[in-house]
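Hello Y.,

Per our agreement to keep a running log of every chain we model this quarter, I'm adding this entry. I've kept the format consistent with earlier entries: sequence first, then predicted structure.
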Amino acid sequence: MTPLVTVAVLIAAVTHAAWNAIAHRITDKLTGFALISGGGLLIGLAMAPFAAFPAAGAWPYLLASAVIHIAYYALLMRSFRLGDFGQAYPIARGSAPLVVTVLAAVFAHEVPDGWAAAGVAVSCAGLTGVALWGLRGHRPDWAAIGAALATGLTIAAYTVVDGLGVRASGSSLGYIAWLMAVQGTALPAYMLFRRRGETLAVVRPFAALGLLGAALSVAAYALVLWAQTRADLAPIAALRESSIIVGAAIGALFFKEHFGAPRVAAAALVVVGIGLMLHSG
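Predicted structure for the entry above:
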């Protein structure tokens, strides 16, 4: 985890929290996610002529990732319908890094050293604290929590699949361009089928906001994919999920969701975890 990789992943964390907040802000979730996904399709097609075509060995990973991403979008939409942004987002993102650590060890043969493992564990403890604070004083909504945890499993799955795929592709820019192009067809097509004649009417009020979300989404994931060609998957996954802190702050500032001192303490744990991961490099 060099300083350049660290900065890239932290920028990705901020942009990722921002596009998720935009998706939550758009009241019609299918419209919001279709715009973001369709915008990613357009950006991917615009990028593709200027990037190397991914090597043949990367395509099984790319196609598998596209399917996983579609499931991820569906589960994230459900999470945002059922729960607060400041709770659903942290649970979804915070549950992923430990799963990535296990999957990376099994499939990428990346066993973290002591410092990196401690950093991932401490960061996950902080991220879990941010998520659980959202439950204080309320009865747990198990449907919302279950959807968020399932979302976290898809995040872990596509993180490892894309980590292996981008390394086999020979071009991180080409991989992200074609990934966006392939996965970006499903949700817009589904929306056209569901809404038929009223598609333009429901899309128009949110078009600019959705396309901004698409640009942030592509930028965030492009930075992560580039970082995955430079460092191990598990520390990157844990560092990227510092977006949870940004998400909790966005929830407090824009959606009037309480942040609180315990979340500040949890954020401090994340910072300590990041420091341990950097020490390992």
